[in-house]
């Protein structure tokens, strides 16, 4: 049993996490530039000002991908590089950067896969309401259409949004991500406008008759029941509403999960006539970002009748459980509930406390290799069972700016020395290279 011949092995990053050059060539502030400058928001006051400096070092990064046989690079476009201040006048220097990046990838036979929005909203659009207002979804659709037109001759894989749940819930409910707001009503307005933004972009894409495929990347939560009791099974089912069904159901024409909204009395979804049709415009694939799985049990006193249960699993540096079988269960659930539809893992990987060895030229990361091995095995198994899983993007190519954790968490298969920006492939880089080549038995 092996991976299908056309299975795509890729790696992923996001603009704010790797580019740096925050004020170069006409780029203006995004909500993350602002958030990083808010005291107490990000560990050690770290910012993405320099990040991995991929803006200047992309040829080296592409070369590293090429030498590992990585077939596709999933990266995101920084909206405020392309439309400074969220305006409608495109910035030639920003566009030129992405043209150079795309052309350099294609030169090496690496397929670009573009995420249009990985959280770096132009600050000015936040100032006028951010995702709580409809106008932002409309601005996003114009931005998306411009990118399709500008890059669509060479880019055939488009991801509208990355993890909109993080934007709405971490950004507007928990306040852990930019814009750092804690307001339930605002968070759910953001949910709807993010969904609308996605749907509008899909419609614009179709209307342009471009060759290529468009989808979205979601981070689902599909918790496991603590015990095989009817109550816990019900608890696990309820637990999938707030993070998974709130995005999946409207995408697949089922509307918002009403029983979930019923537990959120302060919430009003700002739906206008026609919105749900726009949101459910057919997509070509669904991207799933999978890191871990939670366990829940029944609790009648909780609003949604479930509570999370601590587990005994091995943890990553993020404190996230290592549960490869959770990937298996999640993909089967998505396939059986919403499929058949082409699926991609658009992110999977792990942070561990990596250190360079004494020579400073190698980094031994056996735990990451084990994590990747087990999750790739699950992918292989799903393929062999006939699930249309078409590819895997490893998070991440490089150590990078891990949002509210700053640079304290390292997800890369390539180590970054943030002093001199040296790239040092970790053992997991060579492991992934051998998996792709088919010489590493999983
Ligand atoms: C995802 N959570 O973020 C993002 O797509 C990446 O940019 C990020 O680097 C990666 O996963 C690793 O964290 C998440 O707290 C951040 O639930 C936080 C959460 C989930 C995903």
Automatic annotation (TrEMBL):
<dbReference type="Pfam" id="PF00232">
    <property type="entry name" value="Glyco_hydro_1"/>
</dbReference>
<feature type="active site" description="Proton donor">
    <location>
        <position position="163"/>
    </location>
</feature>
<keyword id="KW-0119">Carbohydrate metabolism</keyword>
<feature type="binding site">
    <location>
        <begin position="402"/>
        <end position="403"/>
    </location>
    <ligand>
        <name>substrate</name>
    </ligand>
</feature>
<keyword id="KW-0136">Cellulose degradation</keyword>
<keyword id="KW-0378">Hydrolase</keyword>
<dbReference type="InterPro" id="IPR017736">
    <property type="entry name" value="Glyco_hydro_1_beta-glucosidase"/>
</dbReference>
<dbReference type="GO" id="GO:0008422">
    <property type="term" value="F:beta-glucosidase activity"/>
</dbReference>
<dbReference type="InterPro" id="IPR018120">
    <property type="entry name" value="Glyco_hydro_1_AS"/>
</dbReference>
<dbReference type="GO" id="GO:0005829">
    <property type="term" value="C:cytosol"/>
</dbReference>
<feature type="binding site">
    <location>
        <position position="291"/>
    </location>
    <ligand>
        <name>substrate</name>
    </ligand>
</feature>
<keyword id="KW-0624">Polysaccharide degradation</keyword>
<feature type="binding site">
    <location>
        <position position="118"/>
    </location>
    <ligand>
        <name>substrate</name>
    </ligand>
</feature>
<dbReference type="InterPro" id="IPR033132">
    <property type="entry name" value="GH_1_N_CS"/>
</dbReference>
<dbReference type="GO" id="GO:0030245">
    <property type="term" value="P:cellulose catabolic process"/>
</dbReference>
<feature type="binding site">
    <location>
        <position position="162"/>
    </location>
    <ligand>
        <name>substrate</name>
    </ligand>
</feature>
<keyword id="KW-0326">Glycosidase</keyword>
<dbReference type="InterPro" id="IPR001360">
    <property type="entry name" value="Glyco_hydro_1"/>
</dbReference>
<comment type="similarity">
    <text>Belongs to the glycosyl hydrolase 1 family.</text>
</comment>
<protein>
    <recommendedName>
        <fullName>Beta-glucosidase</fullName>
        <ecNumber>3.2.1.21</ecNumber>
    </recommendedName>
</protein>
<feature type="active site" description="Nucleophile">
    <location>
        <position position="347"/>
    </location>
</feature>
<feature type="binding site">
    <location>
        <position position="395"/>
    </location>
    <ligand>
        <name>substrate</name>
    </ligand>
</feature>
<feature type="binding site">
    <location>
        <position position="17"/>
    </location>
    <ligand>
        <name>substrate</name>
    </ligand>
</feature>
<dbReference type="InterPro" id="IPR017853">
    <property type="entry name" value="GH"/>
</dbReference>
């Amino acid at each position: 049993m092996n991976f299908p011949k056309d299975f795509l092995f890729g790696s992923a990053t996001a603009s704010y996490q790797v580019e740096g050059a925050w004020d170069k060539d006409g780029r203006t502030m995004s909500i993350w530039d602002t958030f990083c400058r808010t005291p107490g928001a990000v560990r050690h006051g770290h910012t993405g000002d320099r990040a991995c400096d991929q803006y200047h070092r992309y040829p080296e990064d592409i070369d590293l991908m090429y030498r590992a046989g990585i077939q596709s690079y999933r990266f995101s476009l920084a909206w405020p590089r392309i439309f400074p201040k969220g305006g409608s006048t495109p910035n030639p220097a920003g566009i030129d950067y992405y043209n150079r990046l795309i052309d350099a990838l294609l030169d090496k036979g690496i397929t670009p896969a573009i995420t249009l929005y990985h959280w770096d909203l132009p600050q000015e659009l936040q100032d006028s309401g951010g995702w709580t207002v409809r106008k932002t979804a409309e601005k996003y659709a114009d931005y998306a259409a411009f990118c399709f037109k500008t890059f669509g001759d060479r880019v055939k894989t488009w991801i509208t949004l990355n993890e909109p749940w993080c934007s709405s819930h971490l950004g507007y409910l928990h306040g852990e991500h930019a814009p750092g707001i804690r307001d339930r009503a605002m968070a759910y307005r953001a949910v709807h406008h993010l969904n609308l933004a996605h749907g509008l972009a899909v419609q614009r894409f179709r209307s342009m008759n471009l060759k290529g495929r468009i989808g979205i990347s979601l981070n689902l939560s599909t918790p496991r029941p603590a015990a095989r009791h009817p109550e816990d099974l019900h608890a696990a089912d309820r637990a999938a509403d707030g993070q998974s069904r709130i995005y999946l159901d409207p995408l697949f024409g089922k509307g918002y999960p009403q029983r979930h909204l019923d537990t959120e009395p302060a919430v009003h979804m700002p739906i206008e006539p026609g919105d749900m049709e726009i949101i459910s415009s057919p997509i070509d694939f669904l991207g799933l970002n999978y890191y871990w799985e939670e366990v829940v049990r029944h609790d009648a006193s909780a609003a949604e009748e479930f509570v999370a249960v601590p587990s005994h699993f091995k943890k990553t540096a993020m404190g996230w459980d290592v549960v490869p079988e959770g990937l298996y269960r999640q993909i089967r659930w998505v396939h059986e509930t919403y499929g058949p539809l082409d699926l991609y893992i658009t992110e999977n990987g792990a942070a561990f406390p990596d250190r360079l060895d004494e020579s400073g030229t190698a980094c031994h990361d056996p735990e990451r290799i084990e994590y990747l091995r087990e999750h790739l095995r699950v992918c292989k198994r799903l393929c062999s069972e006939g699930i249309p899983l078409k590819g895997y993007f490893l998070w991440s190519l490089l150590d990078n700016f891990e949002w509210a954790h700053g640079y304290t968490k390292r997800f890369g298969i390539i180590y970054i020395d943030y002093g001199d920006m040296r790239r040092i492939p970790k053992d997991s880089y060579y492991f992934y290279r051998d998996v792709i080549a088919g010489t590493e038995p999983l």
